[in-house]
Design a protein that fits this description.
Blueprint (H helix, E strand, L loop, with lengths): L18 H6 L8 H10 L1 H6 L4 H7 L2 H7 L3 H19 L4 H5 L9 E4 L15 H16 L3 E6 L7 E4 L5 E4 L11 E2 L9 E6 L2 E12 L2 E7 L7 H4 L10 H21 L6 E5 L5 H14 L3 H10 L1 E4 L10 E2 L1 H14 L4 H6 L11 E2 H8 L2 E4 L2 H10 L15 E2 L6 H4 L2 H11 L2 H4 L4 H5 L6 H29 L4 H6 L9 E6 L15 H9 L5 E6 L7 H14 L8 E4 L4 H10 L2 E4 L11 H7 L3 E5 L2 H7 L9 E4 L8 H25 L8 H14 L5 H44 L4 E6 L11 E2 L2 E5 L8 E10 L5 E8 L1 E5 L5 E4 L3 E2 L6 E9 L14 E2 L10 E2 L1
Parallel strand pairs: 1-2, 1-9, 2-8, 9-10, 10-13, 13-14, 15-16, 15-18, 16-17, 18-19, 19-20
Antiparallel strand pairs: 3-4, 5-7, 6-7, 7-8, 11-12, 21-23, 22-28, 22-31, 23-27, 24-25, 24-29, 26-27, 29-30
Helix pairs in contact: 2-6, 8-30, 10-11, 11-12, 12-30, 21-25, 25-26
Length: 870
C-alpha cells in the first residue's frame, strides 16, 4: 500500500544537546576519537548495533537517555568540546593549501569523480581499496584545505554483505540503505529544493536527485535515480555498486560522468579542474568537451584541447580484465546521438576508446580517459612503470619509460586508521605535527623518544582488544550459521592475546594469493602449534559474487580453521568492512600481503598497519616494492618475500615465494618476536617497530599524496586551463589550429642526415657534438624539438634506459633544410652504446611533447661522419 503523502521524522533532541545533530551530519566524526567517544557515551551498545551510524542512533535511542544527557554536566562539557572543535576546524583559515597558495588571486576548484567512496562503514557505497582511497583523499583534502568537491553515486544497496554457510561457502545478501537515517542530506539549489538533474538515455530522460555528504570542509555530491517518475529499470541504475551486466555498467557510468557534471552545474559549482579516479567516470571528459563547445562556440578539436588541459586521470588497475570495455553496438545504442552532438562520425567516436586505427574491438573507458586527460598517473612507482607498458601503444614510437603516465603513490588518512591508544602516544611524544603535517619527517624522527616499554605495552593492549573482539565476532558467526553449541562455546577460546598475530585481510581475488601460506600444511601447522612460540592467523575478506575461485580460497581457509589442532590459531572473520579493518590493522603484529607481482597497483592496508606499529611481510609489489628498494631506508622496517623475480610458470613462482615466506617466519620473524630478555621485552622487535614508523609514516599518508596531486597536477592544470580559456578561448583556438597544421605536415618530417657523433671506440668521459639535417615540410624549427637520444645498447640491439639531449637550431643549409646540433655530451660509462635522433612537436602550451603518432626517428643509414673531443 503506497502512502498518499510522505514526510521525514527527525530525532527529538533537547535544546542543550542540539549540537549532536551538527556533529552527526558531518563525517569529521569518523576521524575524531573524541567525537566517537561522545556517541559511545550516550549508549555504547546502541552505537555498535547501529553500525557506528550516529544519525540512526539518534533516531532510535531511548528519549530518556537524551533527556538525561541534556542535564549531565560532564556530557555537556564533552559535547561542547567536540562541537567547538568541529566549528573551529571548518572555519579555520589556516591550512597547508592557504600557505602554499599565499598571495594567489586565482585558485583551482577541483571536482573529484569516483564510482565509490569509502568514508565510514555506515555509508555503504564502496567495495574495497579504490573506494577507501577515494574516501581518504577527500578527508585529507579537507584537512589540508584543498578546495575540492567529490562526485559519486548513492547506491540503494551498495556492496554486498558476506556470510558463510556451514561448508564455508560465501553467500551474498544486500540490505537497503535508508538515506533518511544516514549522514546524508538533500543537496539544495538556489530555490531551496533538492536538486534533480536529467540525463539523456535512449528514448527518455532519466532523473537523478542529488544528495550531499559533509566531509569536514569538503562536500561530496551523490546521484540517486530511485525517483518515482523514472521507469523501474532506470530507478535501479543506482541500485547496486558493480551490480548487473555491462548494460547496467554503461548506464551507471553515463550517470556518474555526464550526470555528475550536470549536478555540479545545477548546484552552481564551476570546477576548474576535474580528477577522474579510475575510468568509470571518463564520460565526464566528453561532457566537458560538449559544454565548452557550446560555451565558446568551439569545434570538437578545439574544445578537446581546452577540456584536456583541466583533466586528470588516475588508473588503479594493472590487469587487463579490470578495465571497463563496451561493445560498439552498446556504445551506438546509448551514445550514438551524443556522438553526433559532438560532431563526430561513428568511427571517430569509437576511436576515442580504442588503442589505434588497427583496433576495431570494444570501447575502453581507460583508453578514453588516457586520450582526453593531460595528466595521467599510476598509484605507485612500480604501477606507473606497469601502466606505461600496458598503454604504450597509445603513443606509438615513444620509448616505454617516456610514455606520459607518471605515478603518485597512494597513502592512507592516518586519523581514520590509527587507534586511540597510538593517537595518544603520538600526541605525547611527537607533538601535533604528526596529525597536521604527517609528511614532516622531523615529527616521526621523535619516535625513538618513546620508551620501548611504553610502545610495547600500548601495542599489547591493542592485540588484547583485537583478540577479545575477534572471539565475540567468531561466536556470533557460529550462532548465525547454526553451529553446534560446543563449537559456539569454543569461540571464547580462539586466539591467544600473547601470541604472534599475523593478519591478512583484503579482497579475495586469486592474484592476491590468500592461501600462499597454506601450500605446505605440515610446515604451517608446526608454526601455529609450537607450544612455546605459537603463531596465529586472522583472515578476512570478500570474493566478488561471480568469482568462484576466490570463494574456493575462502572455503579452503575456513575448512582449515575447523581442524581441531588449528581451531585456536586460525580464524576467518566474515563480512570484512572498515570496522573489521580497523581492529586488524590496529592489533596485529605482522601484516601479510602476498600478491603476484606486479598485479597489486599499490595496496594501502599495509600502510594502515604500519602507522599502528605493525610490521609488513609482503612480496615486492605495489608500494612495498617502492619503499623496500629505497636506498635510504634503514633495515628492520619489515620483510620482503622473495626478490621481485617474475617467473612465467606461476605455480613455480608460488612455490618459490611460499618457501621464502616459511623461511622468513621460521628463521627471522618468530625468533625476533619471542626473543625476550629478563624484562620479557622483545627489544629487537620494538626497534623494528620504531624503524618502520619513523621511516614509513612520513611517506604513506594521504596528506602527502593529496599535496602532491595539488602541486604537480591541480595547480598546473588550473593555470593551463585558465590560460587557454582566456579571451573566449583564444589560446585554445590557436593551439588547435597549430595541432591540425602539425598533424597535416608531420608525414613530411624526416631526419635526412646525422653527423659529428662517435663511430668508433673512445675513452669514458669523451665529449661529443652531434649535428642533424632535417626536412620539416611546412613546419619551422620553432614547431619541433629535435633530440639526441642515446644510451647503452642491450642484447636485442636496442637502446635501453635511454637519455635525451635537446639539439639547438643552427639555421638552414643551401637547400633549405634545417640544421640542429647539440652541446657536448659526456659518455660516463663504458660498454656498447648507441645514439639516434628524434623529432617531436613543440608548442609552449603542450602538456606533453608526445602527441599520439607524432614522433619521427632517424632511419638506418642517416648517420655519417664523426667528431669527438676532450
Amino acid at each position: 500500500m503506497k502512502p498518499i503523502r510522505v514526510f521525514t521524522v527527525v530525532p527529538s533532541l533537547p535544546v542543550p544537546i542540539e549540537g549532536l545533530r551538527l556533529i552527526a551530519y558531518n563525517l569529521r566524526w569518523a576521524w575524531s576519537h573524541e567525537a566517537i567517544e561522545l556517541f559511545r557515551r550516550l549508549d555504547s551498545d546502541l552505537w555498535e548495533a547501529c553500525g557506528h551510524n550516529p544519525v540512526a542512533m539518534l533516531g532510535s535511542i531511548d528519549q530518556s537517555k537524551l533527556d538525561a544527557a541534556a542535564v549531565d554536566d560532564a556530557f555537556l562539557a564533552h559535547l561542547d568540546r567536540v562541537q567547538r572543535n568541529l566549528e573551529g576546524y571548518i572555519d579555520s583559515e589556516s591550512s597547508w593549501f592557504r600557505k602554499t597558495c599565499n598571495g594567489r588571486k586565482d585558485c583551482p576548484l577541483v571536482a573529484y569523480f569516483s564510482a565509490e567512496f569509502g568514508l565510514t562503514e555506515c555509508l555503504s557505497i564502496f567495495a574495497g581499496g579504490l573506494g577507501i582511497l577515494a574516501g581518504d583523499h577527500l578527508k585529507s583534502a579537507s584537512d589540508i584545505g584543498v578546495p575540492l568537491v567529490g562526485v559519486g553515486l548513492l547506491y540503494q544497496q551498495g556492496y554486498f554483505q558476506q556470510c558463510l554457510t556451514q561448508a564455508g561457502w560465501q553467500q551474498e545478501s544486500y540490505a537497503d540503505n535508508d538515506f533518511h537515517n544516514l549522514p546524508v542530506s538533500p543537496a539544495v539549489g538556489p530555490d531551496g529544493k533538492q536538486v534533480v538533474v536529467e540525463v539523456s538515455y535512449p528514448g527518455r530522460a532519466v532523473r537523478a536527485q542529488v544528495w550531499r555528504v559533509a566531509v569536514g570542509r569538503v562536500s561530496l555530491y551523490l546521484l540517486d535515480t530511485n525517483v518515482a517518475s523514472n521507469r523501474p529499470e532506470d530507478r535501479d541504475i543506482t541500485d547496486q555498486l558493480y551490480g548487473g551486466d555491462r548494460d547496467m555498467r554503461i548506464r551507471q557510468e553515463i550517470l556518474l560522468g555526464i550526470g555528475g557534471y550536470h549536478a555540479l552545474a545545477a548546484l552552481g559549482i564551476e570546477p576548474t579542474v576535474y580528477h577522474m579516479n579510475e575510468g568509470h567516470s571518463a564520460f565526464l571528459g566528453l561532457e566537458r568537451v560538449r559544454r565548452l563547445m557550446e560555451k565558446h562556440k568551439l569545434s570538437f578539436a578545439e574544445a578537446r584541447e581546452l577540456a584536456s588541459a583541466s583533466l586528470i586521470f588516475t588508473t588503479h588497475t594493472p590487469v587487463e580484465a579490470g578495465h571497463d570495455y563496451f561493445p560498439p553496438d552498446l556504445m551506438d545504442y546509448y551514445l550514438g546521438d551524443y556522438s553526433r552532438r559532438l560532431g563526430l562520425s561513428r568511427d571517430e567516436f569509437l576511436a576515442l576508446g580504442r588503442r589505434g586505427p588497427w583496433d576495431q574491438g570494444e570501447f575502453c573507458m581507460t583508453v578514453l580517459a588516457l586520450r582526453l586527460a593531460s595528466f595521467r598517473n599510476g598509484v605507485s612507482k612500480l604501477h606507473g612503470a606497469v601502466s606505461r607498458r600496458m598503454w604504450q601503444s597509445l603513443w606509438p614510437g615513444v620509448p616505454v619509460d617516456e610514455v606520459p603516465i607518471r605515478h603518485i603513490t597512494n597513502g592512507v588518512h592516518f586519523r581514520s586508521w590509527i587507534s586511540a591508544e597510538m593517537n595518544h602516544l603520538y600526541d605525547r611524544y611527537l607533538g601535533p605535527n604528526w596529525r597536521d603535517e604527517p609528511s614532516n619527517g622531523d615529527a616521526w624522527g621523535r619516535i625513538h623518544q618513546i620508551s620501548a616499554e611504553e610502545l610495547w605495552r600500548t601495542h599489547e593492549r591493542r592485540r588484547e582488544r583485537l583478540v577479545a573482539w575477534a572471539r565475540r565476532r567468531v561466536r556470533n558467526q557460529r550462532v548465525r550459521r547454526g553451529a553446534p553449541q560446543s563449537e559456539i562455546e569454543a569461540a571464547d577460546e580462539v586466539l591467544d592475546p600473547d601470541a604472534l598475530t599475523i593478519g591478512f585481510a583484503r579482497r579475495f581475488a586469486t592474484y592476491k594469493r590468500a592461501t600462499l601460506l597454506l601450500r605446505d600444511l605440515d610446515r604451517l601447522k608446526r608454526l601455529l602449534t609450537d607450544p612455546t612460540r605459537p603463531v596465529q592467523l586472522i583472515f578476512a575478506g570478500k570474493a566478488h559474487p561471480r568469482d568462484t575461485q576466490g570463494k574456493e580460497l575462502i572455503q579452503q581457509i575456513v575448512s582449515l580453521s575447523r581442524q581441531p589442532e588449528l581451531g585456536r590459531r586460525l580464524v576467518f572473520l566474515e563480512d570484512y568492512d572498515m570496522a573489521v579493518a580497523r581492529y586488524l590493522v590496529q592489533g596485529v603484529d605482522v601484516w601479510l600481503n602476498t600478491p603476484q607481482r606486479p598485479l597489486e597497483a599499490s595496496g594501502t592496508s599495509g600502510m594502515k598497519a604500519a602507522a599502528n606499529g605493525a610490521l609488513n611481510l609482503s612480496t615486492l609489489d605495489g608500494w612495498w616494492d617502492e619503499v623496500w628498494r629505497d636506498p635510504n631506508r634503514p633495515t628492520g622496517i619489515g620483510w620482503a618475500i622473495g626478490s621481485g623475480e617474475d617467473y612465467e610458470d606461476h605455480n613455480y613462482q608460488d612455490q618459490v615465494e611460499a618457501e621464502s615466506l616459511y623461511e622468513l617466519l621460521e628463521a627471522d620473524i618468530v625468533p625476533a618476536f619471542y626473543d625476550r630478555g629478563p624484562d620479557r621485552m622483545p627489544r629487537r622487535w620494538v626497534n623494528n617497530m620504531k624503524a618502520s614508523i619513523g621511516t614509513l609514516c612520513q611517506f604513506v599518508n594521504t596528506h602527502r599524496m593529496v599535496s602532491q596531486y595539488t602541486t604537480e597536477y591541480y595547480l598546473v592544470a588550473h593555470a593551463r586551463a585558465q590560460k587557454l580559456g582566456a579571451d573566449n578561448a583564444a589560446g585554445t583556438r590557436a593551439l588547435a589550429a597549430w595541432t591540425a597544421r602539425v598533424q597535416k605536415e608531420w608525414p613530411r618530417v624526416r631526419v635526412e642526415e646525422i653527423g659529428g657523433g662517435p663511430t668508433e671506440a673512445f675513452p669514458v668521459g669523451t665529449k661529443i657534438r652531434t649535428r642533424a639535417r632535417l626536412e620539416l615540410g611546412g613546419l619551422s624549427a620553432e614547431d619541433v624539438t629535435v633530440e639526441l637520444y642515446w644510451g647503452r645498447v642491450n642484447a636485442a640491439g636496442e637502446i635501453s634506459e635511454g637519455s635525451s639531449t635537446a639539439m639547438k637550431p643552427a639555421g638552414c643549409d643551401d637547400h633549405g633544410k634545417y640544421l640542429f646540433e647539440t652541446d657536448a655530451v659526456a659518455w660516463a660509462r663504458s660498454g656498447l652504446h648507441g645514439y639516434t635522433v628524434r623529432v617531436v612537436p613543440h608548442h609552449p602550451d603542450l602538456a606533453s611533447p608526445f602527441l599520439p603518432g607524432l614522433i619521427t626517428w632517424a632511419e638506418a643509414g642517416a648517420a655519417v661522419g664523426a667528431q669527438a673531443g676532450k
